Amino acid sequence: MSSSASDTAPPRRPAQARRFAVASVTAGVVVLIDQASKAAALSELSETDRIPLLGDVLGPQLAFNPGAILGLGSGATWLLTLLGVAATVVLFIAALRARTEWWAAGIGFILGGALGNVIDRLLAPPGFGRGYVTDFLAYGNWFIGNLADVALGIGVLILAIGVWGSHRATTRSDASAHLGSNSSVGGL
After folding, report:
1. Which residue is catalytic, options 49, 56, 135, 174?
2. What is the pTM (predicted TM-score) of this model?
3. Which of these is catalytic: 7, 120, 149, 174?
4. What angle, 0 to 180 degrees and rounded to 10, lies between the N-to-C axes of helices 77-96 and 101-123?
5. Active site (annotated) includes residue 174
6. Which H/E stretch holds residue 30?
């Protein structure tokens, strides 16, 4: 009876499925909250009046963004839609391949934020694939965003902390290995 490498390797499918579920549930919750908040903004807010929450620093005000961040690319909404759809496909694949739950959660936040804005681009006026993203969180006079944008930021922050933590752990283990090898040499 011969044993192959696949017989001795630990099963990874349940862990991969769990990580994909973390990413999927996170993305789904982000999309639901984002779309519900945009629906509330459409029904309750005005494009001309801002409601001050933190003085002039933060307040809800309705806006429609045909472009990307800070309105860049507003003349190429269809291109932004294609890029958004491509990004969601890449993020979906990344979610399938996530190696840790933290990584899966970060990808889930980014995927949910991307999907929230792609839904607007696909379904909102002025037409399919040319829709404007509904924004309603006014940050002073700098820009107006939405909860999908917040989720994108949270996801990037989670991934950055994960990379930083992984780098620190690797650096510490490398330093420990280096110290261990030096101490054994010094004892000769």
Report:
1. 135
2. 0.81
3. 149
4. 150
5. no
6. helix 13-44
Q: What tokens were used for 6?
A: 């696949």
Q: What are phi and psi of 161, to 5 degrees?
A: -65, -40
d(CA 115, CA 30): 9
User: Backbone phi, then psi, for 127, in 5-degree steps?
Assistant: 170, 170
State yes or no: is 135 an active-site residue: yes
- End-to-end, the C-alpha distance of the chain in Å comes to 47
**Dihedral pair phi/psi, residue 135, rounded to 5°:** -115, 150
- Tens place of pLDDT per residue across the chain (188 aa): 555 555 555 446 899 999 999 999 999 999 999 999 999 999 999 999 999 999 889 999 999 999 887 677 778 889 999 999 999 999 999 999 999 999 999 999 999 999 999 999 999 999 999 999 999 999 998 999 999 999 999 999 999 999 988 766 666 665 555 555 555 444 44
Q: How far apart are CA 83 and CA 89, in angstroms?
A: 10
